[in-house]
Each structure stands twice: as C-alpha cells, then as structure tokens.
Amino acid sequence: MAGMGGKVSRHLLGLGVAVIAGLILAAPSGAAVAPCNGHPGLCSRTLDRVVLPGTHNSMGAEELGWSAPNQTFSIPGQLERGARAFLIDTYYGRPVQSNGTTVVQTVDKSEGVETDAPVYLCHYNCTGGASLLEDVFTEIRQFLEENPREVLVFINEDYVAADDFAEVVEASGLIDYTYQRPLDGTWPTLAEMIASRDQVLFLAGDDIGDVPWYHRAYDGPMRETPYTFNAYGEADTALLTSPDLLPDSCRPNRGGNTGGLFLMNHWILGSGVLPIKEFAEVVNTKSALVNRARACEEIRGKLPTILAVDFFGTGDVVGAARELNGLAVDRPRLTPAQIRNKARSLCKRKKGRARTSCIKKQTARLTRLNVRPSL
After folding, report:
1. Residues carrying CATH 3.20.20.190, the chain
2. Fewer beta carbons below 10 Å: N end or C end of the chain?
3. DSSP secondary-structure letter at 127?
4. CATH of domain 8-332
5. How many Cβ atoms from other residues are within 10 Å of residue 299's Cβ?
6. Nearest to residue 338, comparing CAs of 370, 290, 297?
C-alpha cells in the first residue's frame, strides 16, 4: 500500500508514545523542558491551537533564479528562518535542452502518469523555475533529522497523481515523519506528534488517491480566508491592513467554517498577478499580521493556524506567530561554547567526515540564528 513504508515499526511503539509525551510535559519544576517548534510552551497545545509561520508558493525562490518568485529563500532556507507551513504546487516535468541550457518543460497530468515523468515543484509553467520534489523533500528530511522537535504542515496544490506524490515522499525518507493518525476532528499535541514522529502533515488540494496519510485540505481538516488580494496601486496594501477592510478579508472561502485548522492567506499581488516585495514590506509587519489575525479570530471564531505570506524574511512573520501564540519572551542567546556543544549533539549519530561536516554546518546555522526568537 502506498505510503506505509517505515511507519509500521515506529507505531508498534504507540503504547509508549503517550508515556513519553507525558514525561516531557510533567518534568519537575526547574528542570529543562524540551521545546516543541522552538518553545516548551507549545508542547501541550494541540496542532489546531498553534500559530505557524508559513509561506505561499514556497518553492518559487529568488535565490534559485525563478522568474516572478514569491519567496526570497528556498524551502530549506525558509525552514532555517522559522517557517513551519508551506503552500506548494507539484507538476510533472521533463528536462529539455533550450539554447544550450537545460530547462524543465511542464507535462500534463495524464501524460505524466503514462510516461512516469518526474515530479517537480513548479508554478504554472516549469520553464519559469523547477525543483525536483525528491531533492527538496530529502533536504526537509535532513532538517528533521537535525531538528527532531519540529512539526510541519504542507498544503499541495496538486497536478500529479497521489501515488506518484507518495512515491516521492517514500523515496526521500520523509515518510518516516508523516502524520498517519486518522482525521477524526481532534488533533494531538505537538509533544505527542513529535514523540510518535507524526510530524509532517500532508494536505492536498484535490487528488489523494488511496494514500492513507494524504488528505484533502478543504474537505474537513482546514478552512481558509480568500486569497485573491490584487493591488493596482500603492494604497491597495490597505486590503490587508485597513481596519475597515479586514472583516471582508477574513470571510470564509474554501473549507467553509468548520475545519479545525485555519489558513490565513496574507499576500497581495501587483497588477493582479505579480508578487511585489514592496507590498510584503507593508503587509508582513508584525502589527499588520497580528491585527488581521485578531480580526479573523473575531469573525471566524478561532485564530489562524497558518500565517501564509510572500517574501518570508521580509517583515516579521515569526514575531507575529510568537505574539499570537502568547510567547513574548525571546530565546536567550547562546555562548560560542554552547553553540559548539549543541552542534555536536545534533550530529552525534553521524560518523567520520559526515560528522565533521555536520558539526561545521550546524555551528554556522546556530551562529546565524543565535538571535532568532522562539516561536
């Protein structure tokens, strides 16, 4: 059955999961408590009660050379900077030669299934930018190996068959972290998800086939706001910042008003189609995000679960999520010795040159993120 590899053995330990999670949450007063998504205060919260920083069209990155990118950084770069929810598009593609360079040509779904074409992350047309899905998912799996106390959500606007998507998840090793619990209207705590390694929730826009861990996003689990906020002038950033316009921006869209998870789509496209970083500089400020999230909470009855933005890293999406989660205290800065020790701890399972390379990479990462606040 698609999508089951690697999960059976760890779920045989299911009886111990609740015990482990309980021990984490019941640590003696004064003892260090392991964090969940960067903060111990999130461990006891169910997924639907946590606010996650997120990205829209996560795959389209300026640093990858995509045309009309929605993001500055690649998905691994977004992860390093605190993003924990990702809106992606998947297509079949075929590498072809064009003017002496290799580009990826979009393949329609029926042909892709028939020819067993590779699965790519693209947006509309793969010639504008494409990344092999397996390569990106492998990097995400490596991130989780090095950061084992993180929970992620992916919403896939799918133009590929579910079985082919599942094969990529398996091949990348990300299957070992997929959320495989039933969607019964209740959600586990982050501590429980981490203890059982149900850390990556995959939701689809349409085709879920018979894959047991793949679920239609807007057919039960998730609700959302509108996502068509089109600006034709500088003043149109008011669409997401003006108190008078916020109620309309929070009205129900896909998923109605019943899903436990709540996606707040928070971006403005210039001339109706183009991502504009200058708009993100206005709408991605912490105050703009918090004000809109609070307005949506009043109208929809719950805080957003995901704050999805363009140009993550512009503004303060992480700070907004932290404030909405009620976690106002920044993480203490680490000393150089603490950074070295943490890097060694994260790489303890690796050997030889792989361990040396891992320690170097983790030391650089931890140094760069040393002032990053907790979520």
Report:
1. 8-332
2. N
3. G
4. 3.20.20.190
5. 16
6. 370
Structure tokens at 216: 């239609």
> Bridge partners of 101?
98
Please provide the DSSP assignment of 225-264 as one string: -----EESSGGGGGGGT-TTTHHHHTS--TTTTT-SEEEE
Rounded to whole angstroms, the Cα distance separating 168 from 343 reads 29
Question: In whole angstroms, what separates CA 230 from the centre of its chain?
Answer: 24
pLDDT in tens, 32-43: 579 999 999 999
Backbone torsions φ then ψ of 11, nearest 5 degrees: -80, -10
Per-position DSSP letters for 297-316, written without gaps between them: HHHHSS--SEEEESSTTSS-
Token pair 């079985």 is found at 163
Mean pLDDT score across all residues of the chain: 89
Q: Are 45 and 190 within 8 A, CB to CB?
A: yes
258 burial (CB, 10 Å; 0-12 / 13-18 / 19+) is: exposed
Length of the chain: 375
Per-residue pLDDT reduced to its tens digit, 77-104 = 999 999 999 999 999 999 998 888 899 9
Contact 292, 249 (CB under 8 A): yes
Residue 56 dihedral angles phi and psi, to the nearest 5°: -100, 140
How many other CB atoms are there within 10 angstroms of residue 288's CB atom? 19
Long-range contacts of 228-235 (CB under 8 A, 24+ apart): 229/265, 229/267, 229/268, 229/269, 230/268, 230/269, 230/271, 230/272, 230/273, 231/268, 231/269, 231/270, 231/271, 231/276, 231/279, 232/270, 232/271, 232/272
pTM for the structure as a whole: 0.83
Q: How large is the average pLDDT for residues 17-45?
A: 68
